[in-house]
Design a protein that fits this description.
Blueprint (H helix, E strand, L loop, with lengths): L3 E2 L1 H8 L3 H9 L11 E2 H11 L2 H6 L14 E2 L5 E2 L10 H27 L6 H31 L4 H20 L7
Antiparallel strand pairs: 1-2, 3-4
């Protein structure tokens, strides 16, 4: 026997409002049973034949063919399907609420990041890249200048230990300049 439900339950299963169910009935797109109830399978089959594609999407009938003579099956959760097909139980209202929740979460994350950036906890990637580029360029230039600066001094030294000590001191000074926390004027 066909399942019969009230207007509110039919609206819930179709994913539309009670008012829209009433409007569809007034438009002749849905037929109420003599006892005032709605035959769920019949209502879905009627809508699949009478609504255009845009309307069908709004009432969760997008996958129901317009010319389908096969009865629509409805389970206890409100899912409906034709033989060999299964449609999602999500209503338009559920999808809208999920989309709105996702939007709110994204806005909250964006606001949190903006607050952290304004409080100085986050830095712009371009600024960090620019600072590192300046530091590393300075370090590279300092290392490349070592031979020119020390050539005459090292030529005058005959002891290996002394040459190593001079080179070691110069390299340590270059490394110390790299790790200094003072910001270079940009």
């Amino acid at each position: 026997m066909a399942e019969r439900v009230g207007t509110g339950e039919l609206a819930k299963r179709l994913g539309i409002s009670r008012q829209r169910v009433s409007d569809l009935a007034k438009e002749g797109k849905l037929t109420r049973e003599p006892d005032g109830q709605w035959d769920v399978a019949r209502a879905m089959a009627e809508l699949s034949r009478t609504l255009d594609n845009q309307q069908r999407r709004r009432v969760r009938l997008a996958a129901v063919p317009q010319n389908s003579p096969a009865p629509v099956q409805v389970d206890e959760t409100g899912d409906f399907s034709l033989p060999g097909q299964t449609l999602s139980a999500r209503t338009t209202h559920d999808l809208f609420n999920r989309a709105r929740a996702a939007k709110e979460i994204a806005l909250a994350k964006e606001r949190q990041l903006d607050l952290r950036r304004r409080e100085g906890e986050l830095l712009e990637a371009r600024e960090v890249e620019r600072a590192w580029t300046q530091k590393l360029t300075s370090f590279k230039n300092r290392l490349l200048a070592i031979p020119d600066r020390l050539a005459q001094k090292l030529a005058a030294i005959s002891e290996d230990r002394e040459i190593r000590a001079v080179l070691d001191g110069e390299i340590k000074m270059a490394l110390q300049a790299l790790i200094e926390k003072k910001a270079d004027a940009a």
